[in-house]
Design brief:
Blueprint: E1 2-5, H1 11-19, E2 29-32, H2 38-41, E3 46-53, E4 56-70, E5 73-85, H3 94-108, E6 113-119, H4 123-131, E7 135-145, E8 159-161, H5 168-175, H6 185-188, E9 195-200, E10 206-213, E11 219-222, H7 230-236, E12 239-247, H8 252-267, E13 271-279, H9 287-290, E14 294-304
Length: 325
């Protein structure tokens, strides 16, 4: 078994490996993308490792490094994702070797800690990371919404902008003090159909939501269906809109107006679904939950790599990086 860095020639083998590694119950899915590395490249500082055995790729893992904060203190953290092991070689130490390789890579870069997200139903992965010294920190909710026509004309008509800097002051005011905040999410997805929708009535009566089309990068794909061809993707044109950087939770009526408007536009805009990730601790309007037609629960797992650093997590919701799931 040999672990090495990714090469572009690996993509076909890695996508075949992805097909063999469905997850999520009761409706298993895989992550479809045109190139396996596409999901990693949405982060500026990323690395992809592969495991070879007898000339065959039998495993892979991706990691990115972020400059962020925990407890108000600046730190460097790794985010580990896309851990895959060929079914034939499971329970033979491949997954453990991959996670250890990421830890060693991050230690070599003096990174303070590392975290990842694991489906709550993926018991095998949870046990693997626990064995490697990771602990469960908190739960995240992956909410899925269907396009839906608006039944009433809205009292306030939201406006949208394609400039990723729109409302950056409001977003920072709401989110910048949270643990794991990073300021570059909108900038990194600005070429993927980014839009910022907002209503501002003055006197703190405002709300807004950003979105990007995740299908430009990757999308959850039913495990029982064959991968679509490039032509099929162009023909279908199905968008998968990721919502993020919501502000105005203190104005639920205004925020719901924006939310309803996005779902209404999605009906005629070739959108298959809209998704939103929330920290379970986040106090958001209840419509975000009542309007969802599907929910996946994830555990955030964390491991400190710096013996001189004791994380002091805030007693509040973390910042959700919309690129991560």
């Amino acid at each position: 078994m040999h672990i090495r860095y990714y090469h572009p020639d690996d993509d076909a083998s890695l996508m075949a490996l992805e097909r063999l590694c469905p997850r999520g119950l009761p409706e298993p899915f895989v992550h479809y993308r045109r190139r396996f590395i596409d999901r990693a490249t949405i982060f500026s500082d990323h690395q992809l490792l592969v495991v070879e055995h007898a000339g065959e790729i039998i495993g892979t893992v991706a990691v990115c490094v972020k400059r962020t904060q925990v407890g108000g203190k600046p730190v460097s953290l790794g985010y580990i994702f896309d851990v895959r092991t060929h079914p034939t070689y499971r329970r033979q130490g491949v997954g453990q070797a991959l996670v250890d390789a990421v830890d060693q890579y991050l230690l070599g870069r003096s990174v303070d800690g590392v975290y990842g997200h694991i489906l709550s139903s993926n018991v095998a992965s949870l046990r693997l990371f626990e064995k490697m010294g990771y602990r469960r920190l908190r739960q995240l909710l992956f909410l899925v919404y269907q396009p839906f026509p608006a039944l009433e004309f809205p009292e306030w008509m939201p406006r949208h902008h394609d400039d990723y800097m729109t409302d950056c002051d409001l977003i920072q005011a709401v989110h910048s003090t949270r643990d794991l905040y990073v300021p570059d999410v909108a900038e990194r997805v600005k070429n993927f159909g980014f839009q910022r929708w907002s209503v501002d009535l003055g006197s703190a009566q405002f709300a807004g939501i950003s979105l990007f089309d995740q299908s430009y990068v990757f999308q959850q794909w039913p495990a029982h269906l064959p991968y679509p061809s490039e032509e099929e993707m162009r023909t279908r044109g199905n968008k998968s809109l990721r919502l993020f950087d919501e502000v105005g939770t203190h104005n639920p009526a205004i925020l719901k107006t924006i939310f309803d408007n996005l779902r209404d536009l999605a009906v005629t805009d070739n959108v298959s679904k809209l998704t939103l990730i929330l920290d379970r601790m986040d106090r958001v309007p209840t419509f975000f939950f009542s309007e969802a037609y599907n929910q996946l629960d994830y555990w955030m797992v964390f491991k400190s790599l710096n013996p001189d650093w004791i994380p002091e997590w805030q007693d509040g919701p973390i910042y959700i990086d919309a690129r991560e799931l």
